[in-house]
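Because discrete structure vocabularies remain unfamiliar, we first show an illustrative case, written as a sequence plus integers encoding its fold.
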Amino acid sequence: MSIAHYACGSQDHGLNRRRFLRQSLSGVAAGGAIAGGLGTLTHGAAADQLKSQDMRVVVFNMHGGLSQLESWDPKPGTKTGGPCRAIPTSVPGIHISDLLPYTAKQMHHLCLMRGVNTAEDDHGKGAYLMLTGRRQSAAAEYPQIGAVAARMLNDESRGLPGHIVVTPGGGGGKGNEAAYLGPKYSSISLGGSKPPPNTTKPDAINDEAEARRHEMRRHVNQEFLSRRRTAITDAYTHSYEQALRLMERKDVFDISKESTKDQERYGNHDFGRQCLMARRLLENGVSFVQVTHSNYDTHNENFIFHIEQLGEFDQSFATFVADLADRGLLEKTLVVVLSEFGRTPNINLYYGRDHWSKAWSVLMAGGKMARGAAFGKTNDEGTEVVDGQVDHGALFHTYLRAVGVDSSQTIAVDGRQLPIADPAAAPVWKVLT
């Protein structure tokens, strides 16, 4: 697969170690400054009932900006359409790009949102609003959908994290996506095929000694917490207990336990392994998984890149959707394929497409979403939305409603009630069942 050299020059395409540590520490600090829990609507019987429904969310983040014209909303034969054709799908009347032949066969499970207008062409800001449902502001930080799903849906008795990001090179590190929900609900990153590192007890330590070590640690922690308890100390304690549970269930993260046939069906490449890992995690009750597929910032050679990238994405994603449906998981799992924005209808002099947030597409499936549907419409050349326009706020509400979460709820934070989703937006009710 080709390596993209991003022509826009954005720093959002790189994340070095120093930046990661700085973000992680700032996240812990934010958790210490603003501690709180969910309001009464999500406590007690209401919370138990929600978690008993056993709903899950999986997000495929097509980082860089997937072209809607080469995927979900092709415009063949127009001056903006490019060389890709539109092919029929398993739903009569709905066509998608010929770069997605396997996914086309799964259209009866899917719901296309073709009228997305987010009005944000910056990578970082666009990614933020698509994952939080809010515009980035110096006045407040908002939790991403993964953190909200982990807080609302995850059953901690299963001993598994509620928020996992699967990406090549992921090695067990903590993310910084939870804002005022606290670091407990931030992500753990995993690679595409193996358990996190350091989840096997050294042979030199026997079980009895290990138990004594943790008994002593818990005793000392409890003594300290009785005098000086903060969100930071809670996060520290939780990280140890979570690591222990991960060690006990490390086989969940090992796709070598899957059959050779399944591994071949998903594909012998990073994305195929990530999709198989995601299926395995969902089958074991993890409430939120994000899978990253990158290199879509195609300012140069847009069509060559999309042929390569979607050629890798198509079969693995279609296999994933078909497996969820066959195993009875799609009814309980919301699937979202998103980017930070789309690509320009205009083709530039480098045969590329630039950033375009005015008229693009998001794909959703499963949960309470309509099946075999295409909602919203762009004009003949894909330059603007002409029907069924939605934005990031409406999509965020829809994500939550699709897994049974009342998106009008509030969260109690430091004595204040904050809305779980933007109160100025509302779900797209027409695509919810």
Notes: The first helix runs from residue 17 to 33. The chain has one domain: 14-431. The chain has a mean pLDDT of 86.
